[in-house]
Design a protein that fits this description.
heterodimer; A: about 170 residues; alpha+beta; Alpha-Beta Plaits; 2 domains; 5-stranded antiparallel β-sheet; 4-stranded antiparallel β-sheet; 4 helices; about 25% helix; about 40% strand; disordered C terminus; B: about 575 residues; alpha/beta; Rossmann fold; 23 helices; 23 strands
């Protein structure tokens, strides 16, 4: 099944390459992957979504933790989490349907970040199901271009385990 | 104490600090500064010039396997560095501590496809435990310190330090680091979770038909004495992986030798019929287990390993016990009850009796077969009092079957990667790390030729290595598979061999050819009596196959057996 995992790693050149090389070599099925800085200087945080059975999911964590630059790995799938994705959608918007699109954006609490004569760029942030449902509606007007950041996740409350544990599974 | 040093000097300084006494290498444009600095360090550190960088990597690996210390190799950029890759992959698969220093083009050329530029960091990434590309001299001392630390601690493995040429030429005030800063790497050894150990002990105490599989992890953890204690306390028969040979003396009454694809039949029957299987420091790889789904089908499996990624990698494990083998066994042994297991051991003895009746050496045959050579070599070396370095193929399996290893680290062989050409250079490394030991290369005629030019290294370093070529005129193991699975279509396997005695003669190495059984002992004695290196070209029957054999993807219970004395051919059992 689909699992959301977070990995903390040293922010050094080539670290992303090590991680992606590992995913490729071990044949892990990665759905999305997002990396960025954290509250700690020199530490990056990767949120990734991986598909697999129990054996594969354990392998993802233990193999990833073996990388020298990876400091911790956490599977947050069964924890209460805030999950968000940011998406930019360029949708065809001619005079006739522009008002309808603006209305949809408002319902979804999405914002219009660029306007031109024949199209709009809509920015939506939220859990994937909400994003997916807006995309489905906008498809009726013609989506010209779209970019999704992939999932980022954070455990609610005090569920944050950035310290390495004995076997790498936080 | 701070001293102004060049990057090249810092490379050698790091070796002094890390206790390196031998470096295997071959110079080139991008390592010229390092070689130029060698003159000042030549006395404490011996540089061994190789003929091909692959040899340097295998030598460093053989040095590490024979001694447990880090082996070091040195190569130039581009082809020099990429020539190391086979050796690095070999060391990585078999958890051998190696540090490879490679030169890299100057930072001004880096990424611009300069002459002899290869992305060594990228190339070596999947076959090393870790690697470094150094483009600033300030990063060099820490990287070297970390490389040695990472290579030898935890689960050992190879580490590459790729150093741009201008970094070698730059200078800095050196204070060699005394500690490492690796927030993502904590190799501190500990025993497994006490609850897991207690659960393992309960299972072992309740077992009626227990079996232990001992892997190389037992050797690396220096836990052979503890293994023996556990085995003798609870009377548990032991099978080993290929690399686990030597963990328990093969002559021990509870030793069943190697299991798996070419394990003895009684050993595999014991594995398949056991009710508790305790794997210690073994990857449980496919050559040992046969089809994962049918491995030890009646057993609950306890897997003791330092590396959590190995537990559950190939199959589901009932009781994972993650910890250092030595410390974990020390906690486990007091919880294990003394047991006799008379019925189980009697059953194994019965299977063993059948195996013994099929012993190749029990057949009266005139032709020279390799198992005979292995057993004679064992007798002639005061019952295996030597280091044997095997190559890969049929001879490797016969050696594992017919040379009963008694001491830890007395067999050096490429298990995981199965690298032909490994034996001769690895033996050079082994001999240099243990100069007082008798070292034998046992290699096939195919594999030996892959790294044969390293004979010049043997001669140049005056190493008294004895070489036994098991010459059957074929890439024998491949021919065996063609024999069994491809209707004897021997495509690409017959070899056109040189006269190995003349080859040896060209290196001033004395050599003899042996084609008859009665000449085997004499030749081995002649080789041992000679002070320097000696080569024996054993011309053996070309069509002898290694049995038992488990076909790939089949269950370990499904063996092609050796024939009984009154049967002409191998049989499907």
């Amino acid at each position: 099944m689909e699992h959301t995992m977070i990995a903390w790693m040293e922010d050094k050149p080539g670290v992303l390459n090590r991680v992606s090389s590992l995913f490729r070599r071990r044949n892990f099925n990665i759905e999305s992957l997002t990396v960025g800085h954290t509250e700690k200087a020199g530490i990056s945080r990767m949120t990734f979504v991986v598909n697999g059975d129990e054996r594969e999911l354990t392998q993802v964590q233990t193999q990833l933790f073996k990388l020298i630059n990876v400091t911790a790995v956490q599977d947050v799938t069964y924890q209460p989490t805030v999950v968000r994705e940011l998406v930019l959608i360029k949708v065809r918007a001619t005079g006739a349907n522009r008002a309808e699109i603006l209305q949809l954006a408002e319902i979804y609490r999405a914002s219009i970040v660029d306007v031109s004569l024949d199209c709009l760029v809509i920015q939506i942030t939220g859990p994937e199901d909400r994003v997916d449902s807006l995309i489905k509606l906008l498809e009726n007007f013609g989506i010209l271009e779209m970019v999704r950041t992939g999932r980022v996740a954070m455990v609610r409350g005090n569920g944050y385990h950035p310290e390495p544990t004995h076997n790498g599974i936080a | 104490m701070r001293q102004r040093k060049s990057g090249a000097q810092i490379v050698w300084e790091s070796m002094l600090h890390e206790g390196v006494d031998v470096v295997f290498g071959l110079p080139g444009g991008a390592t010229l500064p390092i070689y130029d600095a060698l003159a000042k360090y030549h006395y404490p550190i011996r540089h061994v010039l190789v003929t091909h960088e692959q040899g340097a990597a295998h030598m460093a690996d053989g040095y590490a396997r024979a001694s447990g210390r880090v082996g070091v190799c040195l190569a130039t950029s581009g082809p020099g560095a990429t020539n190391l890759v086979t050796g690095l992959a070999t060391a990585f698969m078999d958890s051998s501590p190696v540090v490879a220093i490679t030169g890299q083009v100057s930072t001004a050329l880096l990424g611009r496809d300069g002459f002899q530029e290869a992305d060594m960091q990228g190339v070596s990434l999947p076959v090393t435990k870790h690697n470094y590309l150094i483009t600033k001299i300030q990063d060099l001392p820490d990287a070297l310190k970390e490389a040695f630390y990472i290579a030898r601690t935890g689960r050992p493995g190879p580490v590459v330090v790729d150093i741009a040429k201008d970094v070698q030429q730059a200078e800095m005030e050196l204070e060699y680091p005394t500690s490492v800063n690796l927030p993502g790497y904590d190799p501190a050894l500990s025993a497994a979770d006490p609850k897991a150990i207690a659960r393992a002990a309960r299972l072992i105490n309740d077992a009626e038909r227990p079996v232990i599989i001992a892997g190389q992890g037992v050797l690396i953890a220096k836990a052979t004495a503890e293994l023996r204690q556990l085995v003798e306390k609870a009377n548990i028969p032991v099978a080993t992986s290929l690399l686990g040979i030597g963990t328990l003396p093969a002559t021990h009454p509870l030793s069943m030798g190697m299991g798996g694809m070419h394990g003895e039949a009684y050993t595999n029957y014991a594995i398949q019929e056991c009710d508790i299987l305790v794997a210690i420091g073994s990857r449980l790889d496919d050559r040992l287990t046969g089809a994962f789904s049918s491995f030890a089908p009646k057993a609950r499996i306890i897997h003791i390993d330092l590396d959590p990624a190995e537990v559950g990698k190939t199959m589901t494990i009932d009781t994972p016990v993650i910890g250092d083998a030595l410390l974990t066994l020390r906690e486990l042994i007091p919880l294990v009850e003394p047991k006799k297991h008379p019925d189980w051991l009697a059953q194994i003895a019965e299977w063993r009796g059948d195996t013994d009746r099929r012993d190749v050496l029990a057949r009266e045959a005139d032709e020279l077969v390799p198992p005979f050579i292995m057993r004679e070599l064992w007798y002639q070396t005061d019952e295996g009092n030597c280091i044997v370095v095997t190559d890969v193929g049929q001879h490797q399996m016969w050696e594992a079957q017919y040379f009963p290893h008694i001491h830890p680290r007395s067999l050096i062989t490429s298990g995981g990667l199965g690298t032909m050409g490994f034996a001769l250079p690895a033996a050079i490394g082994a001999q240099m790390s243990r100069p007082d030991e008798e070292v034998w290369v046992v290699a096939g005629d195919g594999g030996f030729q892959m790294t044969m030019p390293e004979l010049s290294t043997v001669v140049a370093e005056e190493l008294p290595i004895k070489i036994a070529i098991i010459n059957n005129g074929y890439l024998g193991m491949v021919r065996q598979w063609q024999d069994i699975f491809y209707e004897q279509r021997y495509a690409g396997t017959p070899l056109f061999n040189p006269d190995f005695v003349k080859i040896a003669d060209a290196y001033c190495i004395p050599a003899v050819t042996v084609s008859h059984k009665e000449d085997v002992d004499g030749a081995i004695q002649q080789a041992r009596a000679h002070k320097g290196p000696f080569l024996i070209n054993f011309k053996v029957d070309p069509f002898t196959n290694v049995y038992p054999m488990v076909a790939p993807g089949r269950s370990n219970a499904d063996m092609i057996r050796r024939p009984l004395p009154d049967m002409p051919n191998a049989e499907e059992a």
